[in-house]
Description:
- By secondary structure, the chain is mostly helical.
- The chain has one domain.
- Helix content is 92%, strand content 0%.
- It is built from 2 helices and no strands.
- Helix 1 packs antiparallel against helix 2.
- The longest helix has 42 residues.
Amino acid sequence: MEQYLLDVARDTILTVLKIASPILLIGLVVGLLVSIFQATTQIQEQSLHFVPKILAMLIALLLLGSWMLTTLSEFVLIMYENMLRFIEL
C-alpha cells in the first residue's frame, strides 16, 4: 500500500511538471530576452518586462491548451481506474 501511494505521488508530480513546464519555460525565455534587451538599450520601463511575457505565455497556452487538457484528463482517468484498487486494499 505504501508503494502504491508513492507511485501515485510520483505520477502526480510528473504530470504537473509535464503540464506546467512548457508555459514556464516560454515565460522564462521571453523574460530573459526582454531583460537582455532592456540591459542593452538601458530602457527601465517596468511594463516592458511583463507585457511580452504575459502575451507569450497566453499564446503558448492557446497553442498547447488542448495537449495539456488531454494529458490531464488521461491522468484523471488513470486515477479513477486505480481508485477502486486502492479502496480494495
